[in-house]
């Protein structure tokens, strides 16, 4: 662990790096934020899904309307966001050592930013929490990386996050097509 030193009564005392002391509380707060975001996304998604399903079953002729397609697109965006944040939650919960924080959390930042860009008009309050979470994880990654003397490969991180988001999109697209079989996107 990296340390700093300080003079106390003309003696040098070695103190632990202050960043190392704050990583665990920041990870815990990140987990709290993820839980809060998930609750809000789940409520919004359930409402959108129920509203759209009711409309779909009662209005066969209006299913092709542009307004209904936008509503279904909003439902899909919320579902993608929820799936991605669930993945973020699982990844954060898998962190067990200082050495693997940067490796595990780096791709999550890009995922969170992408999710935020997809839902900021739908749920502004969740968007604000996603921005906070992204910044928090960025600081955790940088501090843990500097303590562990990690090397960052942003190209690999971006590829990993794109792959994860592509998988999430396929899952959600399949759900939407199953829920609304006669709707063209």
User: How many distinct domains?
Assistant: 1
According to CATH, what is the class? Mainly Alpha
- Using DSSP, what is the number of strands? 2
CATH topology: Ferritin
Rg computed from alpha carbons, rounded to a whole number of angstroms: 21 Å
Q: Give the strand content.
A: 5-15%
Instruction: Figure out the total of helices.
Output: 5
Structure at a glance:
It is built from five helices and two strands.
Short descriptors:
2 strands, disordered N terminus, mainly alpha, Ferritin
Q: What does the model show?
A:
The chain is mainly alpha-helical. 75% of the residues lie in helices and 6% in strands. The protein has a two-stranded antiparallel sheet with strand order 1-2. A hairpin with a 2-residue loop joins strand 1 (3-8) and strand 2.
Secondary structure elements and pairings:
Blueprint: E1 3-8, E2 11-16, H1 18-58, H2 66-93, H3 101-119, H4 124-147, H5 154-179
Antiparallel strand pairs: 1-2
């Amino acid at each position: 662990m990296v340390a700093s030193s300080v003079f106390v009564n003309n003696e040098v005392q070695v103190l632990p790096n202050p960043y190392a002391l704050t990583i665990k509380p920041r990870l815990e707060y990140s987990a709290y934020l993820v839980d809060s975001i998930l609750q809000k996304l789940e409520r919004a998604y359930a409402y959108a899904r129920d509203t759209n399903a009711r409309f779909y079953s009662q209005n066969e002729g209006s299913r092709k309307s542009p307004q209904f397609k936008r509503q279904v697109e909003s439902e899909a965006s919320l579902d993608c966001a929820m799936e991605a944040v669930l993945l973020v939650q699982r990844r954060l919960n898998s962190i067990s050592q200082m050495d693997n924080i940067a490796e595990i959390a780096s791709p999550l930042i890009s995922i969170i930013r992408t999710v935020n860009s997809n839902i900021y008009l739908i749920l502004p309050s969740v968007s604000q929490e996603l921005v906070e979470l992204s910044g928090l994880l960025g600081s955790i990654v940088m501090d843990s990386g500097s303590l562990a003397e990690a090397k960052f490969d942003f190209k690999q991180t971006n590829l990993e996050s794109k792959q994860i988001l592509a998988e999430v999109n396929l899952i959600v697209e399949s759900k939407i097509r199953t829920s609304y079989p006669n709707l063209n996107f």
